[in-house]
């Protein structure tokens, strides 16, 4: 008897669930084909890009104005996925304004809000803890490491890009973003000169990391997780790499070290170099082609980069230098 009623209950709730799913689908489907009505989101606009509805708000006058727009998106039918706020210089983000919106991507371009809120440790993303997957911050002077508080609750964050935002120094990010879901991290053009020695180490799902165009002089093996497939350190001030820095990265495909101050990397940077490796790019450095490059012989076909010295090899591709010739050239000391 008991079993029978439990079964009936289950059946009933299954039907109810089934109906509500269909209902939601019908509710949500019709309006979601279009962006919200223009008047509801003025002065913002909405367009469809790459199959996602994209709300663009530029030069917004006040937090109140922004709140009005966001309130109008708090409906079941709303399926706007991306919110972009640009050229806006008020200092406070309307409190709780993001609750019940469904953004999975937010873009901030030339806004001051980010700085002010992150500095207070306020959580600007409240309400999007389980929704927001991608955060992009461009051209917004943050100039302190404190913003990480605000990102901490974002359990689903998989892509983080902060570019041209004066982000220096770089702390141990994996102490802040503790859900470790992050797959892509791009921190380009930020004048970063100091990187914590465990900066990225705990992100064991991180596959793409770019620190392009910063002022990094030195990296350490302890900074990086072994999950990386792509690492870009181009446009920095590196003079060499430590031994074994990429060791254990069994899925590594591409290493970019274009435009640094590298002359010689005297150590094998792979204990055991991954079969997956496709490119090791040292273009636009001043490579001193000499015997200490012996370690690249095993992966010559992946190497890009030209000799600067000795003069008889100038502009020759390092990988095309005959092994015997290379080994016969003594490296001159660099300071
Ligand atoms: C950045 O936004 C401000 C308004 O807050 C605007 O005056 C300025 O022109 C914007 N800068 C750029 C490069 O668009
Ligand atoms: C960024 O902000 C800091 C402090 O507010 C300031 O010292 C610095 O000059 C700013 N950087 C740029 C490029 O505007």
Automatic annotation (TrEMBL):
<dbReference type="InterPro" id="IPR050333">
    <property type="entry name" value="SLRP"/>
</dbReference>
<keyword id="KW-0677">Repeat</keyword>
<dbReference type="Pfam" id="PF13855">
    <property type="entry name" value="LRR_8"/>
</dbReference>
<dbReference type="InterPro" id="IPR001611">
    <property type="entry name" value="Leu-rich_rpt"/>
</dbReference>
<feature type="signal peptide">
    <location>
        <begin position="1"/>
        <end position="18"/>
    </location>
</feature>
<dbReference type="InterPro" id="IPR032675">
    <property type="entry name" value="LRR_dom_sf"/>
</dbReference>
<dbReference type="InterPro" id="IPR003591">
    <property type="entry name" value="Leu-rich_rpt_typical-subtyp"/>
</dbReference>
<keyword id="KW-0433">Leucine-rich repeat</keyword>
<keyword id="KW-0732">Signal</keyword>
<protein>
    <submittedName>
        <fullName>Osteomodulin-like</fullName>
    </submittedName>
</protein>
């Amino acid at each position: 008897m008991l079993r029978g009623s439990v079964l009936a209950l289950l059946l009933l709730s299954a039907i109810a669930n089934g109906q509500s799913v269909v209902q939601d689908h019908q509710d949500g489907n019709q309006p979601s084909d279009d962006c919200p009505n223009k008047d509801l989101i003025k002065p913002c606009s909405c367009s469809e890009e790459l199959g996602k509805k994209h709300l663009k708000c530029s030069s917004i006058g006040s937090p109140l104005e922004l709140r009005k727009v966001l309130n109008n998106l708090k409906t079941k039918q709303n399926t706007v996925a991306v919110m972009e706020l640009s050229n806006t210089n008020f200092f406070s983000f309307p409190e709780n304004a993001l609750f019940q919106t469904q953004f999975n991507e937010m873009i901030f371009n030339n806004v001051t809000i980010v700085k002010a809120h992150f500095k207070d440790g306020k959580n600007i993303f409240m309400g999007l803890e389980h929704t927001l997957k991608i955060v992009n911050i461009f051209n917004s002077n943050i100039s302190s490491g404190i913003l990480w508080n605000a990102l901490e609750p974002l359990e689903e964050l998989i892509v983080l890009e902060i570019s041209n935002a004066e982000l220096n120094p770089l702390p141990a990010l994996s102490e802040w973003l503790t859900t470790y879901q992050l797959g892509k991290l791009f921190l380009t053009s930020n004048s970063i000169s100091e990187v914590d020695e465990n900066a990225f180490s705990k992100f064991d799902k991180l596959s793409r990391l770019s620190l392009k165009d910063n002022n990094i002089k030195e990296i350490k093996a302890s900074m990086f997780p072994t999950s990386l497939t792509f690492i870009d350190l181009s446009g920095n001030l590196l003079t060499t790499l430590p031994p074994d820095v990429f060791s254990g990265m069994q899925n590594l495909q591409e290493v970019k070290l274009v435009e640094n101050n590298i002359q010689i990397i005297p150590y094998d940077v792979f204990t055991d170099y991954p079969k997956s490796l496709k490119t090791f790019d040292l273009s636009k450095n001043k490579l001193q082609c000499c015997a200490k490059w012996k370690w690249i012989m095993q992966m010559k076909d992946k190497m890009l980069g030209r000799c600067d010295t000795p003069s008889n090899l100038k502009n020759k591709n390092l990988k095309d230098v005959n092994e015997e010739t290379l080994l016969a050239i003594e490296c001159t000391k660099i300071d």
